[in-house]
From TrEMBL:
Protein name: chitinase
Family (UniProt): Belongs to the glycosyl hydrolase 18 family. Chitinase class V subfamily.
Entry keyword Ribonucleoprotein: no
PROSITE patterns: GH18_1, GH18_2
GO terms, biological process: chitin catabolic process; polysaccharide catabolic process
Family matches, as SMART domains: Glyco_18
Domain of life per record: Eukaryota
One Gene Ontology MF term: endochitinase activity
E.C. number: 3.2.1.14
Main location: secreted
Pfam families with a match to the protein in the record: Glyco_hydro_18 (PF00704)
Subcellular location: Secreted
Organism name: Pseudomicrostroma glucosiphilum
GO CC annotations on file: extracellular region
């Protein structure tokens, strides 16, 4: 794929700032691992100073038939392509579905080309979307709920960690990407949390080395999917991690689900009860930890979490029932469910739908709650809704349907209807 890689490197220079020209068309040696402790470069903002992040799961092309061409690219500043995996025995980062990632042929792709040297698949299609939309940053997301168990044995081993960095950065270079996103759910103890910070430091160094090799001006980006629950978040070495990260994509969703004892809202802006999880409490936790507000990205669920045999939020339930593809999870286009009434709790800024006959409640963000969150994320006039509202800059690491919990059966509708 050397000819294709050469073209990608030219696009990288254009997207990240033009440097002097390179000699030769193929990729150079794998970027060296750096232990630089320099802080991350200031984040680059989207049009209007906002960031809108969407996930594209590579498995979405199968059952749902949602292809890269369906993505509403103009609505996004960042697209996270998920998920790459890691070999726990070696630390190698690899694309986990060769057919979806590199081989499937879409309209306009030719079988006459050398299949061993030409990139096809989702990554070529997304590259094609990026060419006329140079504002779009495409990052490879590594891990996710299903693959997160592979992080600890790699991050805690210096040699494996170095291989992780080299192979991940090589993928960024070879596929013309704009950076990396790490989704580790979750470090279990301080040793793993320490290793997480080390991994991010070395990734930051590796990406900066790549930037120098390609002679680009704007840095490659490094983000993480950050836990919203304080039980997980308080384990992290946040102050140090923040030095290396471009953005913190807060997973401010899945705050209620089948794992609970009572039905609840999965992404309330405020908590109904003291100590209960909420978007507000998650954001303020990271602000108190010293994360700059312009680096916080608020998560928004574009899918529904269901509860059956219940009188509604805060009440016991029995089962979650079927969903669009996964039990208890409904695609956004199916909501509100037929026969149900949409509800909106203004006090906590949370929405859903409830079927009184079937006693079924589904939690999701509707237009009302989403618009309030959008105002809170960026407009000073909404500061009465949340004490730090005027400081929260960005809206949503958009997961639709969920790509973290139960990743293999999650969905794919990224800011688009299909």
């Amino acid at each position: 794929m050397s000819r294709f890689i050469s073209g990608l490197q030219k696009v990288l220079k254009s997207d990240h700032g033009q440097g002097s020209s390179q000699q030769g068309g193929g990729p150079g040696p794998a970027p060296s691992t750096s232990t630089s402790s320099q802080p991350a470069h200031p984040p680059s903002l989207g049009q209007g100073g906002k960031v809108s992040v969407g996930y594209f799961p590579n498995w979405g092309i199968y059952d749902r038939g949602f292809k890269p061409q369906h993505i509403q690219v103009t609505s996004l500043t960042h697209l996270l392509y998920c998920f790459a995996d890691t070999r726990p025995e070696s630390g190698e980062v690899f694309l986990n579905d060769a057919w979806a990632d590199e081989q499937i042929h879409y309209d306009g792709d030719s079988w006459d080309e050398d299949q061993s040297r030409t990139l096809f698949g989702n990554l070529k299609a997304i590259y094609a979307l990026k060419k006329p939309n140079r504002h779009l940053k495409v990052l490879l997301s590594i891990g996710g709920w299903t693959f997160s168990s592979h992080f600890a044995p790699v991050a805690t081993d210096q040699a494996k960690r170095g291989n992780f960095v080299n192979t991940a950065v090589t993928i960024v270079r070879d596929y013309g990407l704009d950076g990396l996103d790490i989704d580790w759910e979750y470090p279990a103890n301080d040793r793993e949390a320490r290793a997480y910070a080390d991994l991010l430091r070395e990734l930051r160094g590796g990406l900066d080395t790549l930037g120098r090799e390609l002679q680009v001006e704007r840095p490659f980006q490094l983000t993480i999917a950050a836990p919203a629950g304080q039980e997980q978040a308080q384990k992290l070495h946040i102050a140090e991690m923040d030095r290396y990260l471009t953005y913190w994509n807060l997973m401010t969703y899945d705050m209620a689900g089948s794992w609970d004892k009572v039905a609840g809202h999965q992404a309330p802006l405020f908590s109904a009860n003291p100590g209960a999880p909420s978007v507000d409490s998650a954001v303020q936790f990271y602000l108190r930890a010293g994360v700059a507000p312009q680096k916080i990205v608020m998560g928004l669920p574009l899918y529904g979490r269901a509860f059956e045999h219940t009188d509604g939020p805060g009440r016991p339930f029995r089962g979650v029932g079927k969903g669009s593809w996964e039990e208890g999870t409904w695609d956004y286009k199916s909501l509100p469910l037929p026969g149900s009434n949409e509800t909106y709790e203004q006090g906590i800024v949370a929405a859903g739908c409830y079927d009184h006959h079937k006693k079924k409640f589904v939690s999701y963000d509707n237009i009302d709650s989403a618009m309030v969150k959008k105002r809170v994320s960026g407009q000073k006039r909404a500061r009465e809704l949340i004490s730090t509202a005027k400081r929260i800059v960005h809206i949503c690491c958009i997961a639709s349907p969920p790509v973290h919990r139960g990743a293999q059966s999650g969905g794919c509708n990224v800011l688009g209807a299909h």
